[in-house]
Fold:
Amino acid sequence: MTALYTLGVAEVADLVRRREISPVEVVEACLARLETLEPQLQAWATVQRHSALAAAKQCEQAVQRGETVGLLTGVPVGLKDIIYTAGLRTAAGSRVYANFVPAYDATVTVRLKRAGAVILGKTVTTEFATADPSPTRNPWNIEHTPGGSSSGSAASVAARIVPAALGSQTGGSTLRPASYCGIVGLKPTYGRISRYGVIPVSWCLDHVGILVRSVQDAALVLQAIAGHDLHDASSLSQPAGDYSLAVQQAEAPPRIGVLGEFFRDHADAETWQHTAATVERLARAGASVREVALPPSFATVLAAQRLIMKVEAASFHADMFSTQREQYGPRLRETIEMGLVIPGVEYLRAQRVRRLFQQEVPQMFKEVDVLVTPSTLTPAPRGLHTTGDARFQSPWTYAGVPTMTLPSGLSQTGMPLGIQLIALALEEERLFRAARWCEAALNVTLTPPL
Amino acid sequence: MAAERTPEEILAALSAQARLLWGETDAERQRTALSQTAEEIAVVARITLPADLEPKFFA
Structure:
């Protein structure tokens, strides 16, 4: 029999709904897996064993009573430790927030619970979701980083501890660790998922991200948590789509635009060759493929993204930083210090450039459904001194357009590689159709040797 | 205007601000980060923006 901890989101929800498996047994299996692997992976900040088992029991009783249950019924989920959980410590990987216990749930926490998900606990984040690395290890090779900042979420989903976890992305913090760990990562359109109750890095750049092991699972989780939220000023007013339906409609081959230039120049040779070979496989399976040029403002996007992030992070941390400067890690400290000296006029110029880039992005989609790049410059780097390089993900976070990484194979050293798919703002359904088609055409599922 | 300044000139202005905020020793420690930030400002300044292009903070 298949081990319960290996089941994905859709499988768990379906089997629980049909009373073929017990959500309590699923949670017990995931908790046991967690306890076995945690000494190696160090992916969890807080585990709420008793609450999770109690929630699973309630779920089981609701199913037995024949009640209507949610999309994620009985699905164990991990939450990045910057996401508020009422009564449960949310330390953000920081000494400053070491004892912080939120009084309320983040909107995403509320919506996950409402959909029947069981919150197993909080996954490790880098300090305040920025660049100082966390202790978490990559399940493919514990000598390598899992990436960051959603380190624990990515490692846990890849290691089959949970079928889904939430992360966040300000530069590349969901897609990069997802790719490094060989799983699916989704960052939807800016404002699609509420940020209310999520500790910010940068208000204009922050997105909640989804880490799962299939495109269908990403659709289910997004379906459960997307939608307007009055508590979040950046929340989209447009209604969420039917993402599960989009996945089912993935029959027609997509029109794919390949971005070379910057991405070809900065990927290492193996990663670029692997991406080219992957795109060739997609073309042989029926996708229409053409090269697409980057718009003129692309040359400025990485610099502008960094300026915005530094200033907004400095603004959020300024008061705490003035009294607890020594409690901050060196990279975040540097980020805040820089943000505090950048003139306001330069910050606003970076915001105007962002608007320009957002206006130019649609030019790239005139004849394609999605764009494709390598998800990362290289496979996960060896060592825990870095969480890797965000340059391939940051431009799209800065633009606020939806992106997804799919696992596409292994490097010569046995580490995962992935492709990044990019769609126009608000076009998650098109992204899902293309991603599901590519997933089926590639037929790559990566399971780490644990 | 930032567009008319070199990274070195921007760095000088940022360093002066850093010295005011943090003192001479810390400003010196921050020199690499200040240089990188100055370069980022210079890159962003190189692009010509339409005069009527307003920032848009949220979606």
